[in-house]
Amino acid sequence: MTENKKFILALGTNINHEMNMFLAEHLLKKMLPSIVFTEAKWTKPIGLNFKPDNMFLNELAFGYTTHGTAQMERAIKHIERECGSIKAERSKGIVTMDIDILLIGEKKYHHEDWERSYIKELLNNDPYKTK
Fold it and tell me: Closest Cα partner for 21 from 105, 111, 85?
């Protein structure tokens, strides 16, 4: 039997915010029916490709899965594309949808993201409270 592992995903968009977040949540729920989302949080952009007024809408998602990391990555990249995310737009500072795996099981990813204040704040809403 495959182990059920906790996961944490970080979602963010800086265009058509509510629509893109709704679509990503819908697609993730189809793949992971027990997924739970935090409330969304507005944040200023981080990085050189973004204009200071190009706000992001961010949230975290928590749940458990038997999927492996590679399988989750493929599914998440597919969902990003379904939301309209393409690499050419990212170089122009347009992020239709970005979904990053922060945790699967005991393995943390995107270590720099864990230090961001909005991630720390949203982690306080972890319904499973294991870190």
Answer: 85
Burial 52-83 (b: 16+ CB within 10 A, else e): eeeebbbbbbbbebebeeeebbebbeebbeeb
Residue 129: CB atoms within 10 A of its CB come to 9
Residues listed for the chain: 131
User: pLDDT in tens for each of the 131 residues of the chain?
Assistant: 578 999 999 999 999 999 999 999 999 999 999 899 999 999 998 876 777 678 999 999 999 999 999 999 999 999 999 999 998 888 888 999 999 999 999 999 999 999 999 999 999 999 987 54
Nearest Cα to 56, choosing from 24, 85, 95, 92?
A: 95
DSSP 8-state code for residue 3: -
Produce one character per residue of 93-116: b if its CB has 16 or more CB atoms within 10 Å, e if not.
ebbbbbbebbbbeeeeeeeebbee
DSSP 44: -
